[in-house]
Amino acid sequence: MPPISRNFATITLASLMLTGAFSAIPAQAKSAQRGDTQVTVDASRWEAADPAMDRFITDLMSKMTLEEKIGQMSLLTSDWDSTGPTMREGYQDDIRKGRIGSIFNAFSANYTRELQRMAVEETRLKIPLLFGYDVIHGHRTIFPISLGESASWDLKAIEKAARISATEASAEGIHWTFSPMVDISRDPRWGRVSEGAGEDVYLGSRIAEARVRGYQGDDLGRVDTVLATAKHFAAYGAAQAGRDYHTVDISERTLRDVYLPPFKAAADAGAATFMTAFNEYDGVPASGSRYLLTDVLRHKWGFKGFVVTDYTSINEMVAHGYSRNLKEAGEQAINAGVDMDLQGAVFMENLAQSVAEGKVDMQRVDAAVKTILEMKYRLGLFEDPYRYSDEAREKATVYRADFLEAARDVARKSMVLLKNEGNALPLAANARSIAVIGPLADSKEDMIGSWAAAGDRKTRPVTLLEGMKARAPKGTTVGYAKGASYDFADADKNDGFAEALALAEKSDVIIAAMGEHWNMTGEAASRTSLDLPGNQQALLEALEKTGKPVILVLLSGRPNTIEWADQHIDAILHAWYPGTMGGHAIADVLFGDYNPSGKLPMTFPRNVGQVPIHYDMKNTGRPINPNDPNAKYVSRYLNTPNSPLYPFGYGLSYTSFGYSPVTLDKPRIAPGETLTASVTVTNKGPRDGEEVVQLYVRDLVGSVTRPVKELKGFQKIHLKKGESRTVRFQLSDADLAFTRADMSWGSEPGAFKLWVGPSSAAGVEAEFELTE
Ligand code: BGC
After folding, report:
1. Measured in angstroms, how far is the CA atom of residue 557 from the centroid of ligand 1?
2. Residue 443 domain-assigned?
3. Do 334 and 431 fall within a single domain?
4. Which atom of ligand 1 is nearest to the CA of 231?
5. Do 301 and 434 share a structural domain?
6. Is pLDDT above 80 for 4?
7. 178 CA: nearest ligand 1 atom
8. Per the domain annotation, does 550 fall within a domain?
9. Does 757 map to a domain?
10. Domain C-terminal end among 581, 610, 639
11. Does residue 379 share a domain with residue 305?
12. What is the pTM of this model?
């Protein structure tokens, strides 16, 4: 099979120049009461003691030379694909010499078998290779980008997507995915917001657990499970100014309260590996941070898996100005707690000497090697190194019809209806001619977004146009004109406008498929403008002038600034990059076969000047008075309201939901007691639908200031037309904990506000007290 390119530039190395987060975690099954949903967090069975494994590994390690041990600590890319600067040739020779223990960017039963054969037949100790890969939102069958999936707020669907991804990937020889990315992201300029679960700590933590469970199942010994990786540890999402790889400078409190909890949740759910981040924290590059990798992850959280670096991030410690040379960088990394070097070849080239010089303890090397060999053992690779490389299974598994159907289902669940003036959607039965216009209307490559590593961009993805044509009732015409371009360089052009406008004029309704090229989000894809790139905005305005109803289907991997569209366009649907079955899923929503139920996992700013903007900000000493919003000397802008265009948690439906007043079973609770908040939600509109009922609280006074709102629970419920349901959430002091003034983790007595509602900006309100 030919190399697969993900359009990453190949550059040379020379050009690179505690929440509960802090309580120690017993590594066994736990359960926690969240809202009224009993969430069981199972640390996977891999953590169980296994004396036979211990004997096997002790014996094996007693035979290993230092070079062979260092080989196990080295991971290199194959030449199939590149996800960063390519810097080392000849990986096959390295395999044969036992110089590498793991490979990434190689898959298929055949190819992994071939490489595995080199390891188990040609090396002295016959230690099998571990194959890693970026299986981020699907392997062959591509699901919506992770941020889109997160907009479903449907933990079962998200877990299922991860399960299917693992099933497909493992059938193609992959043992280990570099996912989930659990970085909290609050700056839409940062391209990598598309890879995670958005801005919120609670939602992000629940999604982290769901994804780990999906990938790893409940037994790593099963041949359809893969190791998960919680990445990028830690605080990568706080890159200054949203510029990728940029400096992170946040307080210890923010680290603990915001950035660490999803990692802690992933560790508790049994994530087998952690990947370091490219950024520094408190002046120390994450790959050299003993604080993060050892004090927090191993000691406080009790993590027993292994830590891999991000791509050449040990090498980059030199450019950071933290290490004088690669050898020193390697010493700092392993001594900080890194177990495996991804693509940097720093351990491979320098570690033996560092050990000889006494700069690195042999015990530290042994500890790293042991955790890596344990994972290989738990995956069953010592029993049968080829068990994941099975052609028959591969054939029977990839693109299974039920996987494609699941991808379609998750895609429509992920879509967020942002505006629907005059019920412009679903499309009326009397719309006999539909104009589908825009650079994303018939673009297969864009449907699957970035980090769809093994995803087919050329033939499989169903475009919006194809989906519309397949679904349109007999007698309805679906016309198409590309009309505009999303290329930055085409901003001043208008060559496609005439054709698009002519089509629009003779159609009953216009679907404008606009947004970003798939490579404008993801790694190394930061933007200082969040507007529609190219000449799309100009075409959208021209389309609006025709007076025909216009539906904007936004395809992108981030919140865009679409205030003009919000003011002028009839309906707006955010479809993210919806994956292989995307076009069908969009048609399902536009024609009303599926009633949209997604809610935003990130705040949509009105303009870039508001960024960073997220719902759980602080009140400040001079908040706006809603009755006098233009007063001077309060915390506001002169030219833009403080409020976002669309708040976190927001999303419309084709039906409408009413909320009764909220009732509490008691006005106050003591530590250890549980408060129950109940609300009756009624489907008041014309059709069946789903609602994400959200619970927020505010701690009014703390030993340190507290956010104006924090999500503490949610439930996605299905209500038939006219149906009512009472939704109950439970809260205890544990849910109200944070990093207090003395840096201890816990709640504080006092008064709290509570809201239950359809978004972070609406809801029915109550108050309660937490007593001493
Ligand atoms: C990314 C990681 C990814 C790795 C391997 C890096 O550039 O930051 O998220 O897992 O490459 O492809």
Report:
1. 17
2. yes
3. no
4. 9
5. no
6. no
7. 10
8. yes
9. yes
10. 610
11. yes
12. 0.94
Same domain, 496 and 600: yes
Distance CA 105, CA 131 (A): 8
Q: Is the dihedral of CA 94, 98, 104, 107 positive or negative?
A: positive
CATH number at residue 283: 3.20.20.300
Backbone angles phi, psi at 310, to 5 degrees: -80, 170
CA of 312 to the centre of ligand 1 (A): 9
- Of 393, 426, 451, the one marking the end of a domain is 393
CATH number at residue 578: 3.40.50.1700
Probe target for ligand 1 pocket from 309, 310, 314, 316, with the most ligand atoms within 8 Å of CB: 310
- Of the pLDDT bands very low, low, confident and very high (cuts 50, 70, 90), residue 87 is low
Same domain, 543 and 678: no
CA–centroid distance, 279 to ligand 1, in Å, is: 13
Q: Which of 101, 98, 65, 104 is nearest to 81 (CA)?
A: 104
In angstroms, the CA 88 to CA 79 distance is: 10
* Stronger pLDDT, 634 or 86, i.e. the higher one: 634
111 lines ligand 1 (CB under 6 A): no
Give me the domain span that covers residue 683: 657-770
Catalytic residues: 310
CA of 451 relative to ligand 1 center, distance in Å: 9
Alpha helix stretches (DSSP H) within 283-424: 290, 316-320, 326-336, 346-356, 362-378, 391-397, 401-414
Q: Is residue 33 part of a domain?
A: no
Measured from the CA of 343, which atom of ligand 1 is nearest? 5
- The reply to whether ligand 1 has any atom less than 6 angstroms from the CB of 237 is no
Is the confidence at residue 33, as pLDDT, over 60? no
What's the pLDDT tens digit per position in 344-386? 999 999 999 999 999 999 999 999 999 999 999 999 999 999 9
Length of the chain counted residue by residue? 772
Same domain, 196 and 305: yes
Q: Can you tell me the distance from the alpha carbon of 518 to that of 586, in angstroms, rounded to the nearest whole number? A: 17
83 lines ligand 1 (CB under 6 A): yes
CA of 307 to the centre of ligand 1 (A): 14
**DSSP conformation letters of 727-761:** EEEEE-GGGG-EE-TTS-EE---EEEEEEEEEETT
Q: Is 310 in the pocket of ligand 1 (CB under 6 A)?
A: yes
Cβ of 311 closer than 6 Å to ligand 1, yes or no, is yes
Does residue 81 line the site of ligand 1, with CB under 6 A?
no
* Protein residue closest via CA to atom 4 of ligand 1: 311
Q: Ligand 1: distance of its center to the CA of 96 in Å? A: 25
CB 134 less than 6 A from any atom of ligand 1: yes
Total domains present in the chain: 3
CATH of the domain at 697: 2.60.40.10
Q: What is the mean pLDDT of residues 536-559?
A: 98
Host H or E run for residue 551: strand 550-555
Asked if 434 and 324 sit in the same domain, the reply is no
One domain for residues 520 and 595: yes
Query: DSSP label at 84?
Result: S
Mean of per-residue pLDDT scores for the chain: 93
